[in-house]
Amino acid sequence: MDYFAQQLINGIVLGSIYGLIAIGYTMVYGIVGMINFAHGDIFMIGGFIALISFLILVSIGLTAVPVILLIVLLVSMAITALYGWTVERIAYRPLRHSFRLAPMLSAIGMSFVLTNYSQVAQGARVKPVPPIITGGYMLHQGSGGFVVQLSNVQIIVVITTVVLLAIFTWLVARTRLGRDMRACEQDQTMAALLGVDVDRTISMTFVIGAALAAVAGMMYLLYYGLVDFFMGFVAGIKAFTAAVLGGIGSLPGAMLGGLAIGLIETFWSAYFSVEYKDVAAFSILIIVLIFLPTGLLGRPEVEKV
Amino acid sequence: MTGERVTAPAPERLAVSRAQRAVFIFKKAAISALVALVLFSLMIGVRTEAGPSGQLTYWTRFDDLAAMVGAVFGGSIVVELLRQWWGPVGTIRVVPPSVQSALAVARRGIAPLLLIFTFLVPVIFYDQRYILDLGILVLTYVMLGWGLNVVVGLAGLLDLGYVAFYAVGAYSYALLATNFGLSFWICLPLAGILAALWGVMLGFPVLRLRGDYLAIVTLAFGEIIRLVIINWQSLTGGPNGVTGIPRPTLFGIPLTPGDDGLAARLGIEFSPTHRIVFLFYLILALALLTNWVTIRLRRLPLGRAWEALREDEVACRALGINITTTKLTAFATGAMFGGFAGAFFATRQGFISPESFTFQESALVLAIVVLGGMGSQLGVALAALTMIGGFELFRGLDQYRMLVFGVAMVLLMIWRPRGLIGHRAPTVFLQHSHAISSDLVKEGHG
After folding, report:
1. Can you give the pTM of this predicted structure?
2. Is the ipTM of this complex over 0.95?
């Protein structure tokens, strides 16, 4: 039981990170109708930016951890958001009205560009960082000596995710930008006729998605203490699985799907085999798409001729 | 070509003076440079590396950063000038009829010429091992491209996991040959059949999916196969791969220096080049088989059904075409050729490991098909030549290779999404388009 509780905590933390990435997929798919294949790599870039800015801040002598974390968060969100904007501007906008496979292929190309760009720029080796946030709470001391722990990092990851999700939900539900986004999702032509700047709205979608991916990248760095140039690929596919599982286009769905994937992966590793955890995640993707293509909270898609 | 549509420049564009245009270009370049500065500031301006004690250190590279930003500034000016020189997007240049007919002649002549040249490559470059090896590599990708072309180009099913079938073929041959001592010529069809079976196994669950979802599921499938190969150590040797895969024989006659070898039987002096030449003709034969089968299939009802499926699935279903068999045969046919190519790959290398079957490989084959114009056989062959040749050119810059590949893929999609070399055209189409009077298509008149 204690082991189960510990895995539950780990799964929720991992799921929060996947959920943050999944929001980027689900928003872009909702509005533009394409899988932003490079989104996983945006997450990776976010991790790198967080790492580098953290290193610089530490080396100039800043010691207050909350201040460092806040600055790192803002810097990585800002720069990664610009990456998201640039990717959309260069690789997707010119293809808005091209044939249907073109954006997908362009996105695959962009994913290669980002992966290999960070390999060239920062080297192929894994970048470890010492634990930034230490300490934690002992929740329960089991009879067999197994201790259920909740570390401070885990608390920070979950709290950050919840806060950002709240801000983001408010943004979509209450602001002008959110209304524009929902309008573009329903009907781009009509939205444009009613004075919504479609290009700008789509750009903003990419910017917000990338900023959230940057947060996920930073959380990943805090939690696992390392980044490498190849981590975006698998994390991206898992987050996409989360988005599909939750129902593509639905924001609470993305978070729910993220949690589900995080929990499934953690429990699979804990009770079955660590080696096959990625196989399990990919199999879930296939199974979900076949039997539940609209996801948990999605709307059925009606094909029009 | 959609008619002789030439967009005239808008009047206000002409009125813009040179100076204003220069300012505009300069402003745009400055903004690009600023964006580049922010993007590259930390990623290129600062380099991190784990030190000897595991401690992460960093140093600055502001000269590289300045160079990159300068390159973006200059590049953006060049792109903008090119864009103004070329005119608005969508402009179609009118090609004079004489040039058009010359091009048509060249187009018809290029395929036989290329084929004859390919047949002569081992004769011309007999002493140059490097060129022969490169030729074999290019032909392998031509074959993979033609195989994937059935799925993507003809049936319009975007398959991002094609490398899975390549892997199945390679491992089928490697394991059958090393464990049971079966010869290449028995294993080749078996590898094809096994790959085709896997193709059907993938095809069944994804019948209802289309477009992006199909792509992502095939990608997941390819990754699952690779991960299983890595982790199923007792069968596949895991990351270490399979070694000591037997070399192919000329229908039982080995190409070895021994007494029963081909050279001894023919009474000529043994040379290791014989095997390379043999492998060259083997893959050429396999590739031509793929091409021939595809061309024949295209003229059968099945091929027509594939093309109909590609053009419009709903219309296809409305016309009574069995979607299930159409899709499954496309997957199975494509997978079978992938399996053949995999078996060839295994016998050529003598060693295979999961590293050869990554997603990058799938993307490369897909890029060849797309570059070749999705459906054009000649286009795919030329695209494979261009791609693999281009990769060889960048071999010295190993770590930039995939970067350049990615950039090329994005630019290609923006510039010519329908392919660079060929273009897909339906095999059958109406010769005359009849104008139908509106009173004929009223209800009840069809």
Report:
1. 0.86
2. no
